[in-house]
Amino acid sequence: MKDVEAQAKTRMDKVIAGLQHEMAAIRTGRASVNLLDSVRVDYYGTPSPLNHVATLHVPEPSLITLQPYDVSQIGAIEKAIRASDLGLNPSNDGKLIRVPVPALTEERRKEMVKRLHHVAEDHRVAIRNIRRDSNDAVKKLLKDKAISEDEDKRAHDEIQKMTDSVIQKVDQLAKAKEKEILEI
Prior knowledge:
Helices cover about 60% and strands about 15% of the residues. The protein is an alpha+beta fold and about 180 residues long. It folds into 2 domains: about 1-25 and about 105-180, Orthogonal Bundle (Topoisomerase I, Chain A, domain 4), CATH 1.10.132; about 35-100, Gyrase A, domain 2, CATH 3.30.1360. The strands form 2 sheets. Strands 3-4-6-5 form a 4-stranded antiparallel beta sheet. A two-stranded antiparallel sheet has the order 1-2. The N and C termini lie far apart (about 50 Å). About 25% of the residues are buried. The mean pLDDT is about 90.
């Protein structure tokens, strides 16, 4: 029974980590190197994350700079950033790529918030699926007579408490990110 609860906790923690990672890639009004996490560059035939082919910096709140390790890849990096759905327009001086992060329009902010709500809901569903799997495992233990009915009820209550607290954390993270997006 403890194994089931521990496994559920571990899986729920992974869902929270995944949510934080996905939320970091959602654009707010200011520049962040995490903004470019989803961008992949065709590096000699292999799709690679930007941070594997260049050094990323945020010298000011509305600018990201990229210094490619291999200067011959500057065009491919620029092309990959343009092709992403982030709405960014990079420029280069031959050695350094500058990516200005424009201020978000009201419409774009609302789009970002919608996307954020969708991402948060996907993670809530994942948490509920973990709860269902854990409850099924506990029911199987009861059916196999490995635990008593009291232990079954206690385990279901514990799993529900854990689920509620993790969903509450998802909601808090989403609310904080939404505030950050809508902040001008």
